[in-house]
Amino acid sequence: MVKVQLNDVEKRYGPTVALAPTNLSVTEGEFLTLLGPSGSGKTTLLNIVSGMTEPTGGEVWIDGVDVTNVPSAKRGLGMVFQSYALMPHMTIFQNIAFPLQIRGLPREEIRRKVEDVLELVQLPHVAGRKPKELSGGQQQRIALARCIVYDPSIILMDEPLGALDKKLREQMQLEIKRLQVQLGITMLYVTHDQEEAMTMSDRIILMNNGSAEQIGTPNELYFQPNSSFVADFIGQSNLLDATVAGEDRVRLVNGEIITVRHDAPLSHGQSVKVLLRPEVLHLREIDAGGNRLDATIRGSVISGSTVKHFLELDGGTSVLVEELSNGTNAAPAPGDRVTISWSVGQARVLPA
Length: 352
Ligand SMILES: Nc1ncnc2c1ncn2[C@@H]1O[C@H](COP(=O)(O)OP(=O)(O)OP(=O)(O)O)[C@@H](O)[C@H]1O
Ligand SMILES: [Mg+2]
Fold this sequence. Notes:
- The chain is of the alpha+beta class.
- Helices cover 24% and strands 36% of the residues.
- It has a 6-stranded mixed sheet, with helices on both faces. The chain has a 5-stranded antiparallel sheet with strand order 13-12-11-14-19.
- The chain is globular, with a radius of gyration of 25 Å.
- The site of adenosine-5'-triphosphate has 12 residues, from strand 2 and helix 1.
């Protein structure tokens, strides 16, 4: 079932296009993340759904109703932002109870709901404390509790974990995901952190300069990016300049010909980019049907579980190779000559 539907929504500020006409449908219970660099239109899109930003064109539908002209408070959404905005003079209990009191619920029901939700975010013991007596991660959980206490069927979050350190962020990512699945909530989530988006989302919209560059599952964006922008933004990538030299062949700038697979029709002589993920490359030959290129080692870095090799192809192009470290890898020395190889299906051709 479609929960949220956007038909050609757009937002202009004078000559600035904050959001180009965008179509989107979000399924009930889906975790959808808006990912992209700063200024790409993530908050604009989220706020158009929330009703805090009025679109300059298009329509917003929620649960089959056109809510384009319905004020924010009447759209039945929950919202969590980067600044938790807990009220400092109130206890945690009072903070969470507040939205229920506004809705005029009976006292006993409020008490029960607040206790339930504190249990849900695993902080039943902090009800009597003030926000400043909690850690950042705990405050964020309370902000989440305050949002889910009135059972919104859709929650919008704009960079909710931005203020937390890496460990806590990762813990909260799992927590939010667990609650979202458990409660069957439809989630619209904004982040500029691609790992966070990959971990949490059913689908990701990658925003670029006010437009949706690609919409798909984390796997689709990683393994089937449809542009260099997507390949570059999601994960690490080598993007080699090349020209089409035949049905399934491209010529790199150093003149070497490599075999590729592709979905889109290519015309002879067309400029393209060849995507090679660092982890599909090997420093030795893997199979006779694969591709190989000669290169020179410029440096290697061991980062715990993996080893990164920085290479230079003959002709001068830099390439990154990432291999699992087994503790006994004989590290090549700078200046060593090596051969990199990969299986043909793992190189992806993208428009230049
Ligand atoms: N009130 C406004 N007036 C004019 N321009 C605006 C306004 N709000 C946003 N913009 C512009 O619209 C574009 C998109 O902004 P938006 O806040 O949606 O980006 P974002 O992807 O959320 O970025 P960030 O990751 O930095 O939060 C930016 O170029 C921004 O400068
Ligand atoms: Mg923003």
